Amino acid sequence: MKGNAYAKLNDRQQQMLDHITREGELRVSDLKETYSVTEMTIRRDLERLEETGAVKRTFGGVIFVGKDIALQERTGVLIEEKARIGRHAASLVQSGESIFIDGGTTTAQIARYLEPNRNVTVVTNALNVVTELSGKGMPVLMTGGMHVEATNSLVGPVAAGMLAGMAFDRVFLGATGVSAEHGFSNSNIYEAEIKRIAIRQAKESNVVIDHTKFGANVLISFASLSGVQRIITDAMPNDELALACRERDVLLEIAEK
């Protein structure tokens, strides 16, 4: 995967990537009609998308391959939106609580906005979250496990076993996609397992997700839409997803600018 490939996508290419992620497979002719550009432009766009590692070109089309997009490549994307989401999520944490924060660029913003010297215990499997909490004067427990370089998080039996013996007041999880049908999804089977365990061990589960993930069905569903209590995001989803949230009693909270 070439460095910063994801951050270099233009608006059309980002929309195209979201489209391919949702559908799983598309033909060049479909993309040409949808985006009203020439076939040559579509093929150049697909070359750029293939550099991210998330899609693979085929004869006459493209498929989504579900490859993890490296953390460092996502860090510079939607910075303001992720900061708003993280600040809102951090404001929910109450004194005396034990919380879990998993890996990701949006979840790291929660750690950044937690006030120092709080009576809060944080458990995490993410190295970037530990870095954000360093020097804040609160207890931090980190799982062991196998290191996933793309997301800088720890997964596998050691991490899963540790979390299975804990109880959390709140958990904060990232997701690569969310839809009414597929629920919350992720491209890494080991990270999905950690998310499932965290939800099972929590009184309240929160998913922090930016608007570009709405409607996306990524490889592995780690929870149904009704499997969490709250979604914290930066913009309202379309009517279909918003209605599905209401019907399933999922709080949909928009972080203020």
What attributes characterize this protein structure?
single chain, 257 residues, alpha/beta, seven-stranded parallel β-sheet, three-stranded antiparallel β-sheet, 23% strand, globular
Fold topology:
Elements: H1 11-23, E1 25-27, H2 28-35, H3 39-51, E2 55-58, E3 61-64, H4 71-74, H5 79-91, E4 98-101, H6 105-113, E5 121-124, H7 127-133, E6 140-142, E7 146-148, E8 153-155, H8 157-164, E9 168-173, E10 177-179, E11 183-186, H9 189-200, E12 202-208, E13 220-223, E14 230-233, H10 239-247, E15 251-254
Parallel strand pairs: 4-5, 4-9, 5-6, 9-12, 12-14, 14-15
Antiparallel strand pairs: 1-3, 2-3, 7-8, 10-11, 11-13
Helix pairs in contact: 1-3, 2-3, 5-6, 6-7, 8-9
Give a quick summary of the entry.
This protein has helices at residues 11-23, 28-35, 39-51, 71-74, 79-91, 105-113, 127-133, 157-164, 189-200, 239-247; strands at 25-27, 55-58, 61-64, 98-101, 121-124, 140-142, 146-148, 153-155, 168-173, 177-179, 183-186, 202-208, 220-223, 230-233, 251-254.
